[in-house]
Amino acid sequence: MNFSNIIGNEEIKIFLDNLIKTNNVVHSYMFIGPDGIGKVLFAKEFAKMILCQDSNKACNHCSSCIKFNSDNHPDFMIINSEDGKSIKINQIRFLQERISEKPIVSSKKVYIINNSDLMTVEAQNCLLKTLEEPPEYAIIILVLSNENKCLSTIKSRCTKIAFQKLRNSDLTQYANENNLEINSSLLSASDGSISKLLNLQNNLEAYKQLDNIINAFSKDNIVDIWNNADILYKSKDNINTLLEYLNTVFLERLKSTKESKYIQSIKIIENTKNKLSSNANYDMCIDNLLLQIWEDFNENYNRG
């Protein structure tokens, strides 16, 4: 089977492979699912199979595959947001100009619109004309995480393929193959997403410091915890990400121990996030966060 270089979503691999084998590829698809699970990789591999000139699809030897692998295929294009915020009508008009030209190397042309939920309404309405009357050789794949941002007229003209979060075993496999550090807390915080896992790896020292703070709640006094919590005090621009990690660890421990202190800790964190979003004093919010969690971790503490 193809897609062997992609981790997870095994059922979709079989489904797409069968579409190719039975020659049942249609003109438009929506690859829908959480970010960071490999939807674009799936779309590119699917495109490569569609364009392949050999009966053994994605053969890696024919002229089409060679050009595809070198990012030099004239019958293939990926459209991305130019500013990270939206995909504009001029980009869709460019796609339409290109798609009107007949294939050069393959018998088909494939166009991927990545993060297509970023298309403006004008861009979507422009694309609709092509989806309604596509050239017989054209296949368009919309890759997105939030289909609610797409017009119903767009959705109704596409075959939807729903991708699932990766399993912990998938993430562990990826981590092992790429020599990444992994543990149960990192797995939970990754939430089935390789991109989240990589982000955690890029900031691994910060998350290790958070683990140290969590472990200190039951054994250190509050002054020592305050003094050793620089990672929280100095991460104002990234604080919500760090607080989400704390929530993930506490939730994981709640599931395994059923101890109520973890429920309270999660509530304290959510309350802190609300205060910070209301522009409360940052250092005081972190002070109170740590104090309140420490109090709940120490049963013998006298609250007065």
CATH architecture classification name of the largest domain: 3-Layer(aba) Sandwich
Number of structural domains: 2
| Overall average pLDDT | 92
For this structure, what is the CATH homologous superfamily of the largest domain? Answer: P-loop containing nucleotide triphosphate hydrolases
Tell me about the largest β-sheet.
Answer: 5 strands, parallel
Identify the CATH class of the largest domain: Alpha Beta
Beta content comes to: 5-15%
**Count of DSSP E strands?**
5
Radius of gyration: 24 Å
CATH-defined topology of the largest domain: Rossmann fold
How do the strands line up in the largest sheet?
2-3-4-1-5
Element-by-element helix/strand order: HEHHEHEHEHEHHHHHHHHH
Terminal Cα separation, in Å? Answer: 66 Å
Number of helices: 15
Please give a structural write-up.
By secondary structure, the protein is an alpha/beta fold. It has two domains: 155 residues, 3-Layer(aba) Sandwich (Rossmann fold); 95 residues. Helix content is 53%, strand content 9%. β2, α4 and β3 form a beta-alpha-beta unit. α14 runs antiparallel to α15. The model has no long low-confidence stretch (mean pLDDT 92).
Summary keywords:
304 residues; alpha/beta; Rossmann fold; 2 domains; five-stranded parallel sheet; 15 helices; elongated
